[in-house]
Each structure stands twice: as structure tokens, then as C-alpha cells.
Amino acid sequence: MKPPSRLIIAALVVATSLLVPSLLRSPLPLLPCLPAVTAPSGTGYQPSGLAALADATVYYATTPTVPQQTHDEISLALAVLRRRAPVRLLVFGLGHDSPLWHALNPGGDTVFLEEDPEWHRAVCSASPFLRSHLVSYHTRLDQADLLFDTYRRLPSCVPGAEADDEPAVRGNDACPLALHDLPPEVYEHEWDVLMLDAPKGYFAAAPGRMAAIWTAAAMARARRGEGDTDVFLHDVDRKVEKMYAEEFLCDRFRVGGAGRLWHFSIPPVSRRDNRTAAGGGGERPFC
């Protein structure tokens, strides 16, 4: 049997050493409760806790499969989850690291969105406890430049002149960058943390992450609950991810990064100063 990757073991050791002591000091039944995300019958969804963390540790310690992210990248998100958990965590993409994200949000709601039917079936078969949805995207990577150059001309895609005039996501089929037809629960809850590691964005016919980035920015701007929205974007070494991140997630809200992962902490418009609350920042209306 091939020995487990040192990278995987190191990542789980960091996760376990940081999370388990804090969880043991605060028993899971005493953690603050969030409104439940109602799961359809038969999905196999289960709340995350110490058992899930233990299962994930055993899995990664005994498999040669390497997660999509590096130790440093995982540690960047782990620091936020450790500070804010339990949270509502929305992850774009299913992967080898999905059981880890599920386990690192004890007591919270972790939901995954995946566009590839075969991959969705494979991951859910291996990890039936994950809460996931098969979704569709309406963009192509080879449209990225055109969408970027024209979105400002569409009122449905840009913030209005008033602070409360924010572009909608749900049902906003007039904006080609809005993920307007996701499962209802995505719109019915505010998400504290978003991890953008999908959809595919490395060949012309792939959906690209343009709509995922715009949607994350729109959700963060419209937040009404306490705190800011932490957004993590992977693969920022690629042109489209970097370009759209700077345009919609905004350099001024980037608070960290590791490897190919950027971390943004985005305040809602209601808590921004007058320079950015209404109509954005001129050339970059979301910033």
C-alpha cells in the first residue's frame, strides 16, 4: 500500500490540534445553534462534530489521494472556521477534501454545489453524509472577457445609486453573471463563509468561475446578519479568477492569501462608508 502523503497527514494534524481542544472545552450540545438547513429525505445528511472530524482524520491518514488544496491553503480557511464556527459554509465544488470541510465546521451547516453529474455521484457514493446539490451554470470560460466588458451596461448586474438598491441573485435571469436558479436553500439563508473552488475553469467550454464570483460578491454585499462574509477563492494564478476577484471581491477587502488561495472579508453595503455604499467605486462598482 502506498504510504499516505505527508502533506495530508500534516493538514489533518493541524486541524485536529487546533479544533479538538477547543471542542472539548465546549461540548457540542452547548454550541450556539443556527437555524437548521432542511435536507430532503434520504440524503444521509448528518451534523458535523467530533465523530466527523475523527472519520476525516482516519480517511486522509490512510489514503494516497491528495486534497485539491495545499496544507497552507487549508490552514488559511481553517483559521477562519476555528474563529467563527459554527457557521453556514457554502462550498462551490465537491472534491477529495469535501469530508474535511464538512468536519471542520462542527455544529454548522455545510452545503456543497457541484456541476459534474458523474463526479457528484462518485463523491456522494463515497461520502453519503455530505449535503450537496447538483447545479447548472449558464456561462462558458471563453465568454469571460465579453461578460467582463459588458456587465456594467446591464442594470441587473450592477449596484444602483441607492445603498439598498443591490442586484438580486435569485431569479435574476437578466444578469448573465447571476446564479439565479440554484436550489432554494442557497437563497433562503445567509452564508458566513463561501469557498469558491469550482466550477471547472481550465478549458474553453468549461463554465468558468465568473458567475460564482459575481454571485458571492452580491450575496456578501446584501448581507443583513452580523459580521462580514469570508470568501475564499482558489486558483487565483489563472487570469479569469484573478481578474474577476479584483473586479467583484475587491482588493481593498482582501485580507490574506496562501499559495493559489485568496481570502476576502467583505462587509455588507449597510456597514460601508459613503465612498463604497452606493454605486460602488466608479470603475469598479462592486468595490
Going across the biggest sheet, name each strand in turn: 3-2-1-4-5-7-6
Averaging pLDDT over every residue, what do you get? 82
What fraction of the residues are assigned to beta strands by DSSP? 5-15%
> Percentage of helical residues?
25-40%
Given as residue ranges, the uncertain stretches (5+ residues, pLDDT < 50) are: 1-46, 275-281
According to CATH, the fold-level topology is: Rossmann fold
Category by helix and strand content:
alpha/beta
Number of strands: 7
Shape: globular
Using the 3D structure, state the CATH architecture: 3-Layer(aba) Sandwich
Number of domains: 1
User: What is the number of helices?
Assistant: 10
InterPro entries: IRX15/GXM/AGM
Keywords: Membrane, Signal, Transmembrane, Transmembrane helix
Protein name: Polysaccharide biosynthesis domain-containing protein
Membrane topology: Single-pass membrane protein
